[in-house]
From TrEMBL:
Protein name (Swiss-Prot/TrEMBL): Phosphotransferase
Gene3D superfamilies, sorted: 3.30.420.40, 3.40.367.20
GO cellular component: cytosol; mitochondrion
Organism in which the protein naturally occurs: Carex littledalei
EC assignment: 2.7.1.-
Domain Hexokinase N-terminal: 41-239
Length: 490
């Protein structure tokens, strides 16, 4: 019996070796580039976004915006009330603080505003890493750690920056985790993300927790505004340009906020704000429509993600996912044809090994021999000695994925423009400015240019110069301080 088992095992191993050799021989016959091109053309057709389809997506986005404003749960778009109803005018003066908690680090900022002439007179900040044990520990311990750093930073105020007697320091708190906002300065935590897991904090008012921690430190400071980073981007942009109507984040994640007429918000049951406006945090990453060009690669990535079925739009447009989609396309082609050699490179099978900054480096290589492409393939995926034809193919895959994302982001922005009635020229002098922040937009030049070009394409010849895209840097920091200043009690 033992001999038979050994014989069987040897036979199976031998057959496996023969099969492997036959596969390698088959693959070693050379790359059939005609077949590769056919396969790629089929994928491209599924990613295609002609102008008319983009307009349909924008209209679908607009429809969902209406539904989300009508009632909670009426749309995949949450359309959250920010309670920001006063935007900066440039007249703001004084010293304001900001706390930006968005991940494993947090920043505290001190901003001195000098009105229309002085603008941002002075700015200083401190960045602090959160110890891992505090991310899964007690709620009080986390907020005490943050408040202690804030207290230390506030103690470094210069004499010229000190507030007059009887005036309280005011803080804008950027909290980039899901919260149910109850007012401008309160909101309960819905769930943690980004590695945090403090169960007792869920359902608590994060502003109340921070306030108690500051009191324990003896720090006399009031949280005037609790804001989302997208709202901060809009506000930071509005401070520099009064025509800014929307803020968009295009970085690791993606979201948008815009200025809405308060009278159109059916789910708002309070008194209408005096300004007649309200900033709405769309949470557009969760937008979903049958019109979206979702491929087998997107479906597989979504299925294997931590939140399957959610954040579909974000998974198509944000920096967290673009490199991974490229990897999955290259892996599929490499399994069919030996574009990287007779054996599929093992590293190519590792999820998220190709990050979007590396993809950007590959995509932007303009050298005749695509040297940077070869270097990145070697460094990241362990692929050596690629042909120029193979390197060009990799660039083509990056181009397809990046431009699909950029065109979709442009369609989302066009949907906002349609919703606020800025898609037609009612006033020849009217400008509509979209403030965008995030590393994907700032550093991926081909992406940002395609976004701009696509928006002009959607707007048409008559309107293309009436809508302007601008970069709003550090909205999550300075923007929070500006919201505190706009709603100041001092």
């Amino acid at each position: 019996m033992e001999r038979r088992a050994v014989y069987t095992a040897v036979t199976v191993a031998a057959v496996a070796c023969v099969v492997a050799v036959l596969i390698i021989r088959k693959r070693s016959k050379g790359i059939k580039w005609g077949k590769v091109k056919e396969m790629f053309a089929e994928i491209q057709s599924k990613c295609a976004l002609p102008t008319e389809k983009l307009k349909q997506i924008a209209s679908a986005m607009e429809t969902e915006m209406h539904a989300g404003l009508a009632s909670d749960g009426g749309s995949k778009l949450k359309m959250l009330l920010s309670y920001v109803d006063k935007l900066p005018t440039g007249d703001e003066k004084g010293l304001f603080y900001a706390l930006d908690l968005g991940g494993t680090n947090f920043r505290v900022l001190r901003v001195q505003l000098g009105g229309k002439k002085g603008r941002v007179v002075d700015q200083d900040h401190l960045e602090v890493s959160i110890p891992p044990h505090l991310m899964i520990g007690a709620c009080q311990d986390l907020f005490d750690f943050i408040a202690e750093a804030l207290s230390r930073f506030a103690a470094l105020e210069s004499e010229e920056h000190k507030l007059p007697e009887g005036k309280q320091r005011e803080l804008g708190f950027t909290f980039s985790f899901p919260v149910k906002q109850l007012s401008l300065s309160s909101g309960t935590l819905i769930k943690w993300t980004k590695g945090f897991s403090i169960e007792e904090a869920i359902g608590k008012d994060v502003v109340a927790e921070l306030t108690k921690a500051m009191e324990r430190q003896g720090l006399d400071m009031k949280v005037t505004a609790l804001v989302n980073d997208t709202v901060g981007t809009l506000v930071g942009g509005r401070y520099d340009d009064s025509d800014v109507m929307a803020g968009v984040i295009l970085g690791t994640g993606s979201n948008a906020a815009y200025v809405e007429r308060a009278s159109t918000i059916s789910k708002w049951h309070g008194d209408l704000p005096q300004s007649g406006e309200m900033v709405i945090n769309m949470e557009w990453g969760n937008f979903k429509s049958p019109l979206l060009p979702i491929t087998e690669f997107d479906e597989a990535m979504d299925f294997e993600s931590l939140n399957p079925g959610e954040q579909i739009f974000e998974k198509l447009v944000s920096g967290m996912y673009l490199g991974e989609v490229v990897r999955r396309v290259l892996l599929k082609v490499a399994q069919e044809y030996p574009i990287f050699g007779d054996i599929v490179p093992p590293k190519l099978e590792t999820p998220f090994i190709l990050r979007t900054p590396q993809m950007s480096k590959i995509h932007h290589d303009s050298s005749p021999d695509l040297k940077d492409v070869g270097t990145k393939l070697k460094e990241v995926l362990g692929i050596h000695n690629t042909s120029l034809k193979t390197r060009k193919f990799v660039v083509d895959v990056c181009d397809m994925v990046a431009k699909r994302a950029a065109r979709l982001a442009a369609a989302g922005i066009y949907g906002i423009i349609k919703k606020i009635g800025r898609d037609t020229k009612s006033d020849p002098k009217q400008r509509t400015v979209i403030a965008i922040d995030g590393g994907l937009f700032e550093h991926y030049t081909i992406f940002s240019k395609c976004l701009d070009d696509t928006l002009k394409e959607l707007l048409g010849e008559e309107m293309k110069n009436s809508v302007v895209i601008t970069h709003s840097n550090d909205g999550s920091g300075v923007g929070a301080a500006l919201i505190a200043a706009s709603h100041s009690d001092n």
